[in-house]
Specification:
The chain is α/β, with parallel strands linked by helices. 38% of the residues lie in helices and 9% in strands. The protein starts with a helix and ends in a 9-residue tail after the last helix.
């Protein structure tokens, strides 16, 4: 099925769509401001869909596998303590400081991400405790979902964080980390008549920032993210 911009707007366009998702970057959360989720709050967040963060204009769209329970509970992306996403952004020079999202976004940090044009979405929006709880069908559908989001919001560049899930989502078994020569055939097929537009969008596959990814350090993550940020036209801060 082709993922046209009109079809994609049903789940990814600005405002509140039929699915109830929004693009503010803040999910509904019953947590008190500044508090970390306890076990009950994390369990209550299971299967919750987390809103995308989609600034306008959108320069760099970072794509996670799916939100974890901590992200779903707090409404902040990559929020779990120990996740190295925000340290890597700072190491790359994308942000001037390390954002602490563990209790949700501070208004000034959310505003910073909007000013940068840095968006965050997922292949699968459903929150789970582990990515291996996702089915192959969900990941396949997630690839089509991403195509629709890209065609609707037209980021300058896209960075998918996690090579294994990228391979599963697009049936691209030989994919390696780095800038891709183009989008996989399955993605172009999903784009239909908009395949040329999709192919013109630079695509990077970058390492997963999870603390479980022992092959990467904050520094190596930062280098990978900086390459995608430069392709997106972000002005990087000097290394510290």
């Amino acid at each position: 099925m082709s993922a046209s911009p009109r079809a994609a707007s049903d789940h990814a366009a600005g405002g509140r769509a039929a699915s109830g998702r929004v693009v503010s970057g803040k999910a509904d959360s019953s947590l008190a401001p500044g508090s970390r989720p306890d076990r009950a709050a994390l369990e209550a967040a299971r299967d919750r869909e987390v809103p995308d963060l989609l600034p306008e204009p959108l320069k760099l769209l970072v794509v996670g596998i799916n939100p974890g329970l901590w992200t779903a509970a707090t409404g902040a992306h990559f929020a779990r303590p120990g996740n190295r996403f925000y340290p890597a952004l700072a190491a790359a020079g994308i942000t001037p400081h390390v954002i602490d999202a563990s209790t949700g976004y501070r208004s000034e940090d959310l505003a910073l991400l909007h000013r940068l044009g840095l968006g965050i979405t997922y292949l699968v929006p459903r929150a789970t405790a582990r990515a291996d709880e996702l089915s192959a069908a969900e990941l396949h559908a997630g690839g089509e979902r991403l195509v629709g989001t890209v065609l609707t919001h037209r980021p300058v560049a896209v960075a998918v964080a996690g090579v294994t899930s990228f391979r599963q989502a697009f049936g691209a078994r030989s994919t390696t980390v780095g800038r891709q020569e183009g989008w996989p055939p399955r993605a172009l097929e999903a784009a239909g008549e908009h395949a040329t537009t999709l192919q013109a969008t630079p695509l990077f596959v970058v390492p997963n920032p999870s603390g479980l990814n022992a092959h990467e350090t904050v520094e190596s993550l930062g280098r990978a993210y900086a390459q995608a940020a430069q392709a997106a036209g972000l002005d990087l801060h000097p290394s510290r």
